[in-house]
From TrEMBL:
One of its GO terms (molecular function) is carbohydrate binding. Residues 132-272 form the PTS EIIA type-4 domain. It holds the Pfam family Peripla_BP_4. GO terms for cellular component: cell envelope; membrane. Gene3D superfamilies: 3.40.50.2300. Belongs to the bacterial solute-binding protein 2 family. InterPro entries: Peripla_BP_I, PTS_EIIA_man-typ, SBP_2_dom. GO terms for biological process: phosphoenolpyruvate-dependent sugar phosphotransferase system. This is LacI family transcriptional regulator. It comes from the Bacteria. It is found in: Cell envelope. SUPFAM superfamilies: Periplasmic binding protein-like I. Keywords: Signal.
């Protein structure tokens, strides 16, 4: 495991009233009031969710908060998350941090939690409508997609390429994936159905799925020269397929979203992934645990939306698109 994580500054605007220092409250007997927080993520192995769980535990330990955790088996595992919501309510948690796989499908379980007096905060993945939960702590996913879309458009122009775009997406109905894709297309200057987008494949953000998808895309469209990936596991899967196919990576623009250390070292630093939009799961976890502790101990309920930040990182910056160099990314990345 990496050394204890420091707080990352918010690098885009913050909406809402959620950034207030925690001052621990006390029970009438003079002891700090007990708080139990639940954290429900989407899957076990993705470094993004591992980081979120580890930082949530560190924060809980700092605040003398009990943390319960649960996770699904994939980004589409609604049943496990629904069961975890009901189970945590039964265990008497004060609040739940939920990264919803499908907010519409989880609406009933979220409502049951709230009816039982349990606060529910969405992390990473906003709900639609936002009012399904008390608050949302997340990346501005459309902004993240827009940044890599603008970068890809500028890089294509710099290389003098006629764009042939493949998008390796998440899965239908998950807001993070839909927002990133929409942002990418907007930043790239394209629209849904644009003839420049020659292939779009759902990968669930999984490395192996992305490798299979990219292999098929190259079979069907060997001239693909822009690859958008919804996250870095998908980017690393696409990269493996491109390398196996002997593709000329100097003539292909590969972009992604996340900011994990594995992709930063293996992909961005050597120039194999051209750019990534960093996001900060540690901010979501840290502020989520703090918010529930503050609500119980001080009566200050979390509301609104907290943008936890995004920055473009590339070792090959392009004119007109602000970015940080890869040294910054390696220094501030998350995961092992």
């Amino acid at each position: 495991m990496r050394a204890r994580r420091g707080a990352h500054p918010w690098v885009t605007g913050v909406a809402g009233t959620l950034l207030v220092a925690v001052v621990a409250g006390c029970s009438p007997g003079g002891q700090e009031e007990a708080v139990t927080v639940g954290l429900i993520t989407k899957q076990e192995e993705n470094p993004y969710w591992v980081e979120m769980r580890e930082v949530a535990q560190e924060t809980a330990d700092d605040l003398d908060v009990e943390l319960l955790t649960a996770t699904g088996t994939s980004d589409t595992d609604v049943a496990s998350q629904e069961a975890a919501l009901d189970d945590m309510v039964e265990q008497g948690v004060d609040g739940i941090l939920l990264a919803p796989t499908d907010a519409a499908a989880l609406e009933g379980a979220i409502a049951r939690a709230q009816e039982a007096g349990v606060r529910v905060i969405a992390v990473d993945t906003p709900t639609d409508p936002p009012e399904l939960v008390q608050a949302t702590f997340a990346t501005d996913n459309e902004r993240a997609g827009e940044l890599i879309g603008r970068y890809a458009a500028a890089k294509v122009e710099e290389l003098g390429l006629e764009p042939q775009v493949a998008t390796l997406d998440l899965t239908p109905g998950v807001s993070t994936g839909e927002q990133r894709r929409a942002g990418f297309l907007s930043g790239f200057g394209a629209e849904e159905g644009d003839e420049a987008v020659v292939a779009s494949v759902d990968t669930e953000g999984d490395r192996d799925n992305a490798a299979v998808a990219m292999t098929q895309v190259l079979t069907d469209h060997p001239d693909v020269n822009v690859v958008y990936t919804v996250n870095e596991p998908a980017a690393l899967g696409a990269l493996a397929a491109l390398q196996d196919a002997g593709a000329d990576l100097d003539e292909i623009v590969l972009v992604s979203v996340d900011g994990g250390c594995a992709a930063m070292r293996e992909g961005v630093r050597p120039g194999l992934i051209d750019a990534t939009a960093m996001q900060y799961p540690q901010n979501m976890a840290r502020e989520g645990v703090r918010a529930i502790a503050r609500a119980v101990r001080e009566g200050q309920e979390p509301t609104g939306y907290l943008d936890t930040g995004t920055l473009l990182v590339s070792d090959a910056p392009v004119e007109g698109v602000e970015s940080r160099r890869v040294e910054f990314g390696v220094r501030t990345c998350w995961g092992s």
